[in-house]
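Predict the holo structure. Ligand: pyroglutamic acid.
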Amino acid sequence: MKKNATKWLMAAALAATVSSPAMAEKWDLPMAYSGSNFHSVTGAEFAKCVTTGTGGDIEITTHPSGSLFKGADIKRAVQTGQVPIGERLLSGHQNEAAIFGFDSVPFLATSFDQSDKLWNAAKPILEETLAKQNLTLLYAVPWPPQGLYFKKEINSVADMKGIKFRSYNNTTTRFAELTGMLPVVIEAAEISQAFATGVAESMISSGATGYDRKVWESLTHFYEVDAWMPRNYMIINSDVWKGTSQANKNVIKGCAEIAEYAGTWRAKEYTGFTLAGLRAGGMTVEPAGANLKTEFEAIGEVMMADWLKAAGKDGQALVDAFRKMN
Ligand code: PCA
């Protein structure tokens, strides 16, 4: 018995020595948005930082544009270990846990400063929710403020009736329902085609996404509403995380902190730049009119109440913690 154990140990030690040069792990990292999008650029920098920082122990390859997994499938792929790590808009998963929609509640946090505070208020409960799904959170970066895209001038909610509306999560689908539009879920990677073919004629999104997808080829108006600022999250499979050495974990955490900072900085820079880009493309870019704003605020209140009901006491605690910060 003892002899066998010694033999086994020796074999294991030998295998470790022999295989150590090949021990480098290769991690595929799926992302939903185009390679030129600022989230994807931030993710690619993060990947490089980890690869360099771990001395090549962990080599991360990013796959933007939904090329490895489509946006809607990325979270499950990480959870089930099909890939070790991925980046995803968590508000797309409110069906699993209403708390994932905290960053898409209308008019709760409408500036970068408030978005930061809301994120700090949400972090503990979000980490806990993700932990139950075998996921560990690495960093989160906001999108610029959300505004409305149309193919015609809009002055009231009544003008929006019957318009085909591209949605990207439950909140945007609900917004369409409440404004009499017809929602259809479409990934950002596919919106240029959807607008060109008339499958969709409108959406709520950032200037960044409209700019990335050159929507001026099909749409004419962008109304700045500053409705909310959803986030993309870098998540890692918790088993993979537990199996990572402390030294490499430290590197990953450091790279994640840099990514969150750099990504947020880019989001801020990109806000004005992309609105100017939409104008240069020929679009009318302006704040929503007073009437439209008042109507949106009323709709926002309904949506806030909906979300609080769905998110229960965790949602209320999050909102209370956020309000205390202001
Ligand atoms: N762009 C993403 C989500 C929020 C945003 O600004 C999208 O439209 O899919």
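The mean pLDDT is 94. The radius of gyration is 22 Å.
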